[in-house]
């Protein structure tokens, strides 16, 4: 006889805890309500296996799969409801959760209620007090009328908050780039002025002959300073371009 033990992923995406990839963390946080929804669908499916089948192996396997799905729901709800105490979360993900869950904490009541009702119905079936098809159908109707819309709305709100943060980060990055480019341009202007002063100083030193020798040394130092300034300016421009090219956001 084949052992009926469905398996599936119940762990939270590790991207949610990555501090080096805000884009991945944003996608992971928006996926949390979808994870709850997916696991609830699995719970309902396997609940049907517990309630409706006469095969003990399928019934036991379905209940084991339900418990696995319970674990997935609990993992996601722990983040959605307890994010304040999770210092390991990506900072941007924490900010999205803070923004969204302040107004949507009540949306977590439905999955908790559904989880509890499904578990109680399954335990009844295993004790021999099998729920009726009408009870199962009522739970399905409640799920699709109340639970699913709330989870979809929560996921949409998570994405909106992430998009708003992305736009804010982009605006800040472009503003910083503008300031850096402006500073580089001013440095270029100063370097050109210093180079011109150096050129004039060398001309005057040549005219003065031996008496202007010390002045010529100073002119050479000024020229060297100008060249170094231009080099630093070019490096600033390159660094700014590299930062913008590698600025990873959602």
UniProtKB/TrEMBL annotation:
One record GO biological process: chemotaxis
Family (UniProt): Belongs to the methyl-accepting chemotaxis (MCP) protein family.
InterPro entries (UniProt xref): Chemotax_Me-accpt_rcpt, MCP_chemotaxis, MCPsignal_dom
Annotated keywords: Chemotaxis, Transducer
GO cellular component: plasma membrane
Annotated ranges, domain Methyl-accepting transducer: 187-250
GO MF assignments: transmembrane signaling receptor activity
Protein name per its UniProtKB record: Methyl-accepting transducer domain-containing protein
